[in-house]
């Protein structure tokens, strides 16, 4: 079940501080690789970029599992109770996995690195992580190129993105500003379409997931456990037992299998009825959509007589829109980049054929009084498809790196401004419509705080809006009896207890923050000072230097300098502070030294933000 879906949302969650070791096992590696191959081989509109990123992370951990565990449990990675954060070395490996997964998929190491860095914002990385990503991306792209040459001679296996449009072809015009405005308009259309597509997918995936799980409400996580997409409630009865026995040999659940079978059958039927799509793997289909001779070479072989060129392209666009949503909502490994590029390419074709009048195309392509040739018009439509593919995918993923990746692979000099301007317009419009695809996935689970920090206004809100207000009764006085210490940790359900000095002159039940203790440290202190509960009324000063720096060199029992921020500090800055400081997963909010509240990493990573 951990092998389902893209893998990008889980990678993003791990880079933000929630390690999901059950997603980085050898079993997940093998399952995802085999299932992805079968899904792509069956002709389903599935991308390989997200799964490749997940596979790269699995390989990194499988090579040396102890490396991950040791670094995550180290002091620099011990953010949150139980050491649930990501250590510095582990986070660099995971980021490199993102870069090499995308870079190898597109043979575009630069675009892969920027794509990885964009998706994982906001983070703080040093030059080592930056160059590590580039090294991984370049080595991965070289390895793929060498393996492709040795196994296929470099001809049979097409790159994911290719086009026969030549530099300058279909772009030379006497009206460059008007041409740029058309590209921006296409970007706006792709941004609106990308945002709507994400919302359609979220709704469809929710409906199908509730049907698969036989639940009336969306699944929610229990405690800190990550909900599994394929998890189902136990069934009882003879019929249920018979069903489980029948599908047990296939290693799946009957509803998941039925959904995948139905989507595959429907996709096969629809694709076979549209010759432009039928029987083409995704690299060949993208190459066909980006082909400048599409309207001339083999015109009669893919156009439906009763629909014409425009109608056929519109039908292909609607078919890919619908089937991609259904395929990505099924219980199989699936990436989103390549399928949405195909949708965007078809949308660009629709834009050029339907929304742009012939006289406008003639005027744009007229150069020095010379009317355009048919091949120039074909190249113009292919460029519309290229810009549409880049902009639509950028709108879905909310990643400007898609424009860089397309330019890096196709190397069309005159396409820099169209790709960049349309991608920016698409991202701007899509932000008004929906969350990014990967963040929308996280928002429906118990990791809603990650998209809130990344793509909503919550990131710049003051921390006082999301902090937990602390009452003095929940705190430990600086001078406390063992009985009162035991009472506070027994009645409180928190893992962190601030040490305060009450203000004698103040009647508002406030105190100055002096230090902090975890529940584990408080229990150790009680066991050390009074193991048999013989002296419960013994008074101790929690700020005693021996508790902060034990003479025997042991682990401190009290944190004398807890991390603190002011109430107007932004949520994003608090998260970044937790990433770089050894804060044990808690930051205290103080005003002139007076304790106001607390915020934990688990709060930032949950729906509470």
UniProtKB/TrEMBL annotation:
Membrane topology listed for this record: Multi-pass membrane protein
Compartment(s): Membrane
Keyword hit for Cell membrane: no
Main location: membrane
Pfam family, one: Voltage_CLC
Keyword list, A-Z: Chloride, Ion transport, Membrane, Repeat, Transmembrane, Transmembrane helix, Transport
Signal peptide coordinates: none
Annotated transmembrane regions: 20-44, 93-116, 128-146, 177-200, 257-277, 302-319, 331-356, 380-404, 416-438
Name by which UniProt lists this protein: Chloride channel protein
């Amino acid at each position: 079940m951990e092998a389902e879906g893209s893998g990008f949302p889980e990678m993003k969650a791990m880079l933000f501080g929630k390690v999901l070791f059950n997603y980085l096992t050898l079993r997940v590696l093998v399952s995802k690789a085999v299932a992805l191959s079968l899904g792509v081989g069956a002709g389903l509109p599935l991308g390989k970029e997200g799964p490749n990123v997940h596979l790269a992370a699995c390989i990194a951990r499988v090579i040396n599992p102890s490396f991950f565990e040791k670094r995550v449990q180290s002091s620099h990675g011990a953010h949150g109770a139980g050491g649930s954060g990501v250590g510095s070395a582990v986070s660099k490996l995971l980021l490199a996995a993102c870069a090499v997964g995308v870079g190898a998929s597109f043979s575009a190491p630069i675009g892969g690195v920027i794509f990885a860095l964009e998706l994982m914002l906001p983070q703080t990385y040093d030059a080592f992580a930056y160059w590590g990503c580039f090294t991984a991306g370049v080595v991965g792209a070289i390895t793929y190129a060498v393996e492709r040459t040795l196994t296929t001679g470099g001809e049979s296996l097409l790159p994911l993105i290719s086009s026969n449009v030549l530099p300058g072809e279909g772009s030379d015009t006497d009206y460059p500003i008007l041409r740029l405005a058309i590209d921006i308009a296409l970007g706006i259309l792709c941004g609106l379409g990308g945002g709507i597509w994400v919302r359609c997918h979220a709704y469809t995936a929710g409906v199908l997931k509730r049907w698969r799980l036989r639940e009336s409400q969306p699944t929610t996580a229990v405690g800190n456990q990550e909900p599994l997409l394929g998890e189902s409630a136990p069934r009882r009865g003879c019929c249920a037992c018979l069903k489980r026995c029948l599908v047990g040999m296939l290693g799946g659940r009957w509803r998941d299998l039925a959904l995948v079978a139905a989507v595959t059958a429907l996709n096969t039927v629809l694709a076979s009825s549209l010759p432009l799509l039928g029987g083409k793997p995704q690299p060949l289909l993208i190459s066909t959509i980006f082909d400048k001779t599409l309207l001339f070479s083999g015109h009669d072989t893919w156009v439906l007589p009763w629909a014409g060129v425009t109608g056929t392209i519109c039908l292909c666009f609607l078919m890919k829109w619908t089937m991609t949503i259904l395929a990505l909502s099924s219980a199989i490994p699936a990436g989103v980049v390549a399928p949405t590029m195909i949708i965007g390419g078809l949308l660009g074709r629709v834009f050029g054929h339907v929304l742009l009048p012939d006289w406008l195309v003639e005027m744009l392509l007229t150069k020095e009084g010379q009317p355009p040739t048919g091949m120039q018009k074909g190249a113009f439509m292919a460029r519309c498809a290229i810009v549409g593919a880049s902009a639509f995918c950028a709108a879905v993923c909310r990643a400007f790196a898609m424009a860089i990746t397309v330019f890096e692979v196709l190397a069309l000099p005159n396409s820099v401004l169209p790709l960049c301007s349309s991608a920016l317009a698409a991202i701007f419009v899509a932000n008004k419509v929906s969350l990014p695809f990967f963040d929308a996935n996280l928002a429906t689970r118990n990791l809603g705080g990650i998209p809130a920090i990344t793509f909503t206004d919550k990131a710049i809100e003051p921390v006082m809006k999301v902090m937990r207000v602390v009452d003095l009764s929940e705190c430990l006085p600086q001078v406390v009896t063992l009985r009162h210490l035991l009472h506070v940790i027994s009645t409180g359900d928190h893992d962190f207890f601030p040490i305060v000095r009450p203000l004698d002159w103040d009647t508002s039940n406030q105190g100055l923050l002096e230090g902090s203790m975890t529940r584990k440290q408080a229990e150790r202190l009680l066991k050390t000072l009074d193991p048999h509960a013989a002296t419960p009324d013994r008074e101790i000063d929690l700020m005693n230097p021996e508790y902060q720096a034990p003479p025997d060199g042991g682990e401190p029992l009290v944190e004398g300098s807890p991390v603190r921020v002011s109430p107007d500090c932004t949520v994003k800055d608090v998260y970044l502070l937790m990433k770089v400081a050894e804060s044990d997963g808690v930051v205290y909010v103080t005003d002139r030294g007076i304790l106001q509240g607390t915020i934990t990493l688990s709060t930032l990573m949950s729906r509470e933000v």
